[in-house]
């Protein structure tokens, strides 16, 4: 500890202190001291200078000898020889002398001043000169040794002051000194270390620290892989992919050490780990551990996590990686425990080191969650496209989003990906609908509140409204007529569908109040939470246009086309679809479709009755061919296209006969034939063969004309 100021000497006031000490010319007992505000001035004033000077000098010598630190305030240097141990009674007496003159209250300030002067003048320049030698060192082992030597020198220079600090704390706790308190004094000293030594570090020093910790991290991870440090059980639990990945990390050359990248016969991994342990102990002793290592450790961990994640997780959606990375992070925490002396059998971990390690654990986990979520957000379009095979990736992303604040990042990224990769003229409407259905499934799994789906997929809904065939494709998917329409058809077949007739329940209709979950902050307050959560695929597709009438009318058109082109009365599939749609849209909306199906059943019955009557007629009165009609209720069917067609006379006669028979069955009703609709089965006899054809009425009329003529004259109509 630095000596106390002698008589006739002033202890210069350290920067930042609130009290001036004795200075040159301000001799104790010789008049008022202009710059001294300590109580010792008033106490010492008027006392014999000789008597007081002798007693104070003796007490000062005892205290300085016990502290065993530099003997000159202006030229701080370690003492060359050991100090004889003194008795506690001698030290007690010396401190009592200082207390009697109120000089004990300035010892702390005097100690801080000497330490600051020595740091600025001698210790800091010496340390940084040693670090500067790194520029002339090319080999990594030499650089590591140079770094360790520099910190060993720094510890050697600061140890006397730390020992003095321990004594000052002991005296303060014993009530022998007055000051700011032992804890505050220690904090001042440590702050001075950081402020003077490492306020601004050089690029060379940063490179040395980065290289040193990066190398020890790789060595530690390779040792963990091999089962060293009592971790064999962890290696046995590693998957085959883990082992392959760690082999990649260490390099595939069997002649080269995976830890230090040297030849195996020149491996210096044990030396590097020993130097690592020594440096950690020195930094811990000087309370510089986090100040020196935090930036390097943070950079290393971030880089390693990002590299491993790119190598292991990018493009892999069919399995979860969270548990695997949690195990790997525990390995990383093992290295951090070495850095912060929690895993050192020699040093006893204190509460501060334990708290530091806990902070680092939280930091590493948060960083992993944030980076992993960012990567999955970039890949979310592909994840949605591959759903449900990519469900593990969706679950991982959901877990990470609950621990990070990245919802807005997800929304903006997904919107941009959809607009760039999906919503353009080069993509078929059916493909857009298919991906939208996958998005509904995936984003519902990701966010049960459906807010992400509502916001991110709004561009899809707007774009689909601009496509002319959107409704047709959706209806075709519902009825199973579109390619790859299994999702919509299965959704329609659900046992407990969401009705679209009366809307969904309100938020007040929830049966159990404890089941209520608030919406995220980015939810639209104008929309019902329960309605959003209960929406299924069909209801979301129908809501694209805001009205179900478009879909009902489109389905009527599709149903009419199916019924008129199957050329039989089998409508079991259509009846099933109509019944399912009634559960969704309501019976009133599907009434027209029910009438259309009833027309098919009535047509079958009427045709059966007419055919039975024809069978009873004599052979000469029977029609030349069989005629089967589908009788439609014109008010309930979609408008049918009108075309003019001149049929052969025998066909007209058969139709007229059929109409008369119908009028007998249905009084006051008649038939209005659509000549261009239907199917005609013909046997065409050629010179060498007979063809059986099924053609439209137009083609049948043309063929029948050749029964009476070998050449048919066709004249073009007059056109303007």
TrEMBL record:
GO terms for cellular component: anaphase-promoting complex. Residues 241-251, 504-517 have a biased composition (Acidic residues). Gene3D superfamilies: Cullin Repeats, Cullin, Chain C, Domain 2. Residues 1-21, 231-256, 485-531 are annotated as: Disordered. Residues 1-11 have a biased composition (Basic and acidic residues). Signal peptide: none annotated. GO terms for molecular function: ubiquitin protein ligase binding. Residues 538-720 form the Cullin family profile domain. GO terms for biological process: metaphase/anaphase transition of mitotic cell cycle; protein K11-linked ubiquitination; ubiquitin-dependent protein catabolic process. Belongs to the cullin family. Pfam families: Cullin_AB (PF26557), TPR_ANAPC2 (PF25773). This is Anaphase-promoting complex subunit 2 isoform X2. The gene is ANAPC2. SUPFAM superfamilies: Cullin homology domain.
